[in-house]
Amino acid sequence: MSIKKTRLSIILFILVISGCGSVKETTSVWKDNEIKIDGDISDWQNALISIPDKKFAVGFKNDDKFLYISLITDDRMKIMQMLREGFITWVTPNEGDGKTFGVKFPLSNKDMEGEQLQSMNREPFQRDNRDNMEKQFVRLLNRQNELEIINKDKFPLSLMPLENKEGIKVKLGYTANNFVYELQIPLTTGENYSFPVNAAPGGKVSIRFETEKMDLENSRGAMREGGAAPRSGGQMPGGQRGAGRMGQGMPGLQNSEPINYSFDVILQLPAK
Known about the structure:
alpha+beta; Immunoglobulin-like; 5 helices
């Protein structure tokens, strides 16, 4: 077992949200440690929420200035969706005059080559395949150097570099077969930020994760050009203390559903 994977297994404590319905309510964790938006899960110890049957886990933290969001998955179909179709985190304050906006990153990359699509779906995860996949992810992620802000109708409001003065930071990483997404968004309009959440600790914010539905026919055609049709072997973040393993994923490209999951997040107050 690799050092990175061992480290991930030690630090990953995943809480499971119970209940029914597509919207879950949770309370964020007060940020008591530095969070680097670098695509590394180590800043999220004891702060991840496993989504039953969705094969990913999320985390929410805040201080008095920013909301921090993390998503982790090793489901290759979801990873491929995010990289090919783009990924949107929607933000809606539940109070005040704040408006819904979305942070789109990565941007859609529909010119992914058939060979890339095929190898990203190859099963099983032998060591050589893992190394090759990590190299492909790094190559794809290096092409993502901008983020887009969109309104509720998906009309683009701003296209900005990842290094910007708006207080918005986002990063993707790939570590120990896990795809890690991290996002930072300003809570208030301090420092003249253009796209704040407009919420304060103690308030509530709605967060929705979304990928566009994949064009399966084009994807199958691209993969046929690159070789045989792949099988899906994605797995879901487990719900046990100290476990970073993921369960068996859905077989078949046709069974992959877009990510569309919502949370009502109560922003944590600082400890007295």
